[in-house]
Design a protein that fits this description.
Layout lengths: L1 E5 L3 H12 L5 E5 L2 H11 L3 E5 L7 H9 L9 E5 L5 H8 L4 E4 L7 H52 L5 H19 L3 H15 L8 H20 L30 E3 L12 E5 L3 H12 L6 E5 L2 H10 L4 E5 L7 H11 L5 E5 L3 H10 L4 E4 L4 H12 L7 H10 L14 H11 L4 H8 L3 H15 L4 H10 L4
Parallel strand pairs: 1-2, 1-3, 3-4, 4-5, 7-8, 7-9, 9-10, 10-11
Antiparallel strand pairs: 6-8
Helix pairs in contact: 2-3, 4-14, 5-6, 5-8, 6-7, 7-8, 15-17, 15-18, 16-17
Length: 484
């Protein structure tokens, strides 16, 4: 393991180097400043970076930002070394992209173990992603070598399906075209996938009428032509490594076609070549779910999308299938998105979750990150930012917008007393925001599936912590602090 230590204190660098060097297979590099550290990181490409928080000229946060802006170190695990970082400060550093935090003075005897404990999960995710890319490459080569034989087999099934007699060849043809469509889309043959899907649709309609042999043969010819087209345009693998990916190349089929629950598989021509992923979208607005599916299907070819309109449906989806990433709205009927996030992370701690919300970032972002979310993005963000956020958390990182990152960076060393609303619990904060938008105690209770008495108790706590007297005061406080 190659480790880069960036610290302006020569004694700290020396102690860290000696502590790490005594453990086999650890190559230690030193840099006395952030500027030199960024340069050495590009030259040496370390596996891990130990970064001092407080340095002259170019501080730790500036250095981290510079490292993340370079492709060679965009995903390199960075561990902050700092004399004081507790509670919210640790959460902010993690939200900014740090793999972990080690406090000074550290124990030289356990430094190597502490470093390994932080970085091994990240390195394991990267290794898995690289292994997957290798498997996909090998699968692609096998697909190329056997493509002619596959098409010949499909042609034989078409001829058999056209002959009078049992319907067995039709079912076999449907399975063969289905497999071809799913596999081709996964390994970078989008046109082949689309043409095979057309054949599958044609065969699937056979039960409602006579089998159209001529059209089926045209489909097979189109598949052969599509292969030449896709082969002449090899995929460009420009996406960051993905830590969690699909388990196979099969194309799932919807359990039901409805507005409240849908599974959609996309194989779109021209999309980026990435491993197929499974995305669960949890939002109570059908138009939003469909829009997110359309946006992400342009970026992730072959992706499978599941939809849920509330926490109950989301739990059903999570227990029925394995998902690679979840997109979660904060405002849900019944159980709130924040409460559901905590439940989700307790049962599926390894599932990356990206929270999408209509609320401004400074209202909920830190709370959802502390609850275990991999990122936070507002619904008015640009489509490209959504795709980048999904890639980021799939790769094992965390995502916040540049604007929020700047706010977090500015507040890391802020010693000012927290504002009153920052002392509220997550439930109290949610109730406060709902009261501030004009909802009554009864309405809030119905939406959160809680009694009016329970909501009144939360309201009383909000009044006490904000030092206000009544509901109009809560509304004025929220407006004054930009919370609504």
């Amino acid at each position: 393991m190659k480790i880069l230590i960036i610290d302006d204190d020569a004694d700290i660098r020396s102690i860290a180097r000696l502590s790490l060097s005594r453990v086999g297979r650890m190559d230690v590099i030193e840099a006395a400043s952030g500027v030199v550290g960024v340069q050495k990181a590009q030259e040496e490409k370390p596996d891990v970076i130990l970064l001092d928080m407080m340095m002259p000229t170019m501080g730790g946060l500036e250095t981290l930002a510079a490292l993340r802006s370079q492709p060679a170190t965009a995903m390199t695990p960075v561990i902050f070394l700092t004399a004081k970082a507790v509670g919210d400060e640790v959460d902010r550093l993690t939200a900014l992209g740090a793999a972990g935090v080690l406090l000074k003075p550290f124990d030289p005897r356990t430094l190597s173990e502490d470093v390994r404990a932080i970085v091994e999960p990240v390195r394991h995710a990267v290794r898995r992603a690289r292994t997957l890319q290798q498997v996909l490459g090998e699968t692609r080569q096998r697909f190329i070598a056997t493509f002619v034989a596959q098409c010949d087999s499909i042609s034989i099934l078409v001829d058999k399906a056209a002959a009078p007699g049992p319907r067995g060849p039709v079912r076999a043809l449907a399975r063969a075209s289905h497999r071809l469509s799913g596999l081709a889309g996964t390994i970078g043959f989008p046109t082949v996938s689309a043409r095979a899907s057309e054949l599958e649709v044609l065969v699937g309609g056979t039960g409602r009428g006579a089998f159209d042999t001529l059209l089926a043969r045209d489909c097979v010819s189109a598949i052969r032509e599509a292969f030449a087209k896709d082969l002449a345009s090899p995929p460009v693998r420009s996406t960051p490594p993905v830590a969690s990916t699909a388990r196979d190349a099969k194309t799932p089929v919807a359990d039901e076609e409805s507005d409240r629950l849908a599974i959609v598989t996309t194989c779109l021509e021209g999309a980026g070549d990435v491993p197929v992923i499974r995305v669960l979208i949890v939002d109570d607005h059908a138009m939003v779910r469909r829009g997110l599916t359309a946006l992400l299907s342009d970026e992730f070819r072959g992706a499978t999308f599941g939809e849920a309109c509330d926490a109950r449906q989301a739990l059903e989806q999570l227990r029925k299938r394995t998902w690679d990433v979840a997109l979660l709205d904060l405002t849900l009927p019944g159980k709130s998105g924040l409460d559901f996030l905590k439940e989700l992370k307790s049962e599926w701690p390894g599932l990356p979750v990206l929270v999408l919300s209509g609320h401004r970032e400074d209202q909920f972002a830190v709370r959802v990150l502390k609850a275990g979310a991999g990122g936070y993005i507002t619904k008015d963000s640009a489509p490209g930012e959504l795709a980048n956020a999904v890639r980021r958390i799939l790769a094992g990182g965390r995502y916040v917008s540049p604007a929020l990152a700047e706010q977090l960076a500015l507040s890391v060393n802020n010693d000012l007393t927290r504002t009153p609303h920052e002392t509220l619990s997550d439930r109290e904060y949610d109730v406060m925001c709902r009261i501030a938008t004009g909802q009554t105690v009864t309405e809030i209770g119905e939406e959160l599936s809680l009694s009016g008495k329970t909501i009144s108790t939360y309201r009383a706590r909000v009044l006490e912590k904000l030092s206000v007297r009544n509901t109009p005061d809560i509304v004025q406080y929220a407006i004054r602090n930009g919370l609504v």
